[in-house]
């Protein structure tokens, strides 16, 4: 009941407000946020610029999703690569308490230091997908901006705004509120792909009337899962719940409709009906609007043998599963980037992806594709041929360039 009541004003507003009103609100917020900004005054005690990195979600609950691997990896890289110009501080917020400094990853509760305060040269980086914290503490962020700090936010995709039918109603409401708030405050946005940058520009213009006055920069994505681990990986072998001695094909990602799991299972059903021994392993927690598929998955005749679902895999086990997989399938109908694709390539694994522009950018690394609108029979034939080529070594792949250290350095460079 509490989430419903908290979102009720936004539910009503989004149902009744018209586009012109939303545009006026964003323009007014930006005007208010960017007036009366004090001039920079050198701090002789500590000349470094303070970078406040938001970990409001990750620090309280790490669900182990792709987004959280990105947040964790980039946060660790920022802390380790910041030079004498930057004082990196991790912050968190709750519903009742504004942004406070935390000693992440050692301790996730406030360390007794004062609330986050801005001054000229400081940056607040909304790294985490903190839909609620930004909504609860938009006043704190506006004050940070008026005090001379600047606000940047990581944007992974615009799908909840453009394809709301794929998501829960509450998430769509929260996302739309978040995007309007940050549109009214942000100095700039870090986008995880050119596709996301293009989508962001379109949504800000079409939905919120924001055609300029902000900056965007591309965040090059790392792929090494080990760089996202808060402690050094154990040198001992990781025990997996999957038989790693026999070949298997892997899919990684939350089980939600847009990820395309059902399409791949249907194709494997055809292969199994023809006598194939191919195994399909799904790694990812249960998502939204997928109850029928998850029920059919549990009741599948091959469930637990040729069809395996692991909903609660931690990074060390995922790293091991990637290492032993014969290949990885990426079947998403839309993505802001598609982290499992480059994670797979980073393990030198053949990748078969749905033929979308966002995935074509990796074609030079050896990725193969199936038609976006392929039938189950066509998908099955493509998968069978791909599996054969992978087994006989006919698919040459190359690992992506760069790592999360490069990502951190380019992030700091974007802030200027």
Describe the protein's architecture and organization.
The chain is α/β, with parallel strands linked by helices. It has two domains: 2-222 and 406-415, Glycogen Phosphorylase B (Rossmann fold); 249-391, Glycogen Phosphorylase B (Rossmann fold), CATH 3.40.50. The chain is built from 15 helices and 14 strands. Strands 4-3-2-1-5-6-7-8 form an eight-stranded mixed β-sheet, with helices on both faces. A six-stranded parallel β-sheet has the order 11-10-9-12-13-14, sandwiched between helices. β2 and β3 (100-102) form a beta hairpin. α1 crosses α7. The longest helix is centred in the N-terminal third of the chain and has 16 residues, at 66-81.
The proportion of residues forming helix, as a percent range, comes to: 25-40%
Radius of gyration, in Å, reads 23 Å
What's the order of the H and E elements?
A: HHEHEEEEHHEHHEHEEHEHEHEHEHEHH
CATH topology of the largest domain: Rossmann fold
Number of strands: 14
Strand content: 15-25%
Shape: globular
Query: Can you tell me the number of structural domains?
Result: 2
What distance lies between the first and last C-alpha atoms, to the nearest angstrom?
Answer: 44 Å
* SS content category: alpha/beta
């Amino acid at each position: 009941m509490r989430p419903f009541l908290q979102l009720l004003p936004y539910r009503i507003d989004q149902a009744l407000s018209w586009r012109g009103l939303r545009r006026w609100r964003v323009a007014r917020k930006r005007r208010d946020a960017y007036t009366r900004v004090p001039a920079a005054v050198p701090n002789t005690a500590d000349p470094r610029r303070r970078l406040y990195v938001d970990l409001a979600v990750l620090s309280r609950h790490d669900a182990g999703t792709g987004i959280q691997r990105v947040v964790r990896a980039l946060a660790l890289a920022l802390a380790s690569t910041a030079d004498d110009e930057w004082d990196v501080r991790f912050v968190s917020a709750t519903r009742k308490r504004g942004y406070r400094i935390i000693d992440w990853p050692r301790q996730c509760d406030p360390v007794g230091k004062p609330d986050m305060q801005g001054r000229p040269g400081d940056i607040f980086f909304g790294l985490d997908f903190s839909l609620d914290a930004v909504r609860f503490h938009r006043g704190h962020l506006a004050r940070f901006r008026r005090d001379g700090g600047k606000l940047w936010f990581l944007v992974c995709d615009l799908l909840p705004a453009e394809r709301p039918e794929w998501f829960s109603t509450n998430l769509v409401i929260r996302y739309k509120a978040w995007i309007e708030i940050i549109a009214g405050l942000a100095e700039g946005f870090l986008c995880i792909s050119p596709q996301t940058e293009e989508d962001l520009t379109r949504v800000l213009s079409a939905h919120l009337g924001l055609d300029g006055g902000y900056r965007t920069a591309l965040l090059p994505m790392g792929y090494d899962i080990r760089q996202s681990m808060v402690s050094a990986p154990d040198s001992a072998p990781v025990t997996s719940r999957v038989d790693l001695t026999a070949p298997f094909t892997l899919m990684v990602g939350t089980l939600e409709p847009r990820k395309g799991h059902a399409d791949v299972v249907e194709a494997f059903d055809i292969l199994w009906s023809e006598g194939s021994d191919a195994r399909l392993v799904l790694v990812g927690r249960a998502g939204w609007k997928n109850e029928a598929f998850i029920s059919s998955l549990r009741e599948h005749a091959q469930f637990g043998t040729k069809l395996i679902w692991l909903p609660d895999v931690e990074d060390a086990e995922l790293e091991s599963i990637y290492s032993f997989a014969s290949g990885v399938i990426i079947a998403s109908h839309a993505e802001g980037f598609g982290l499992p694709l480059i994670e797979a390539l980073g393990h030198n694994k053949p990748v078969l992806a749905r033929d979308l522009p966002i995935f074509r950018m990796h074609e030079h690394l050896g990725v193969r594709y199936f038609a976006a609108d392929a039938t189950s029979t066509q998908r099955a034939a493509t998968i069978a041929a791909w599996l054969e080529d992978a087994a006989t070594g006919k698919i040459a792949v190359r690992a992506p360039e760069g790592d999360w250290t490069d990502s951190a350095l380019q992030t700091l460079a974007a802030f200027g």
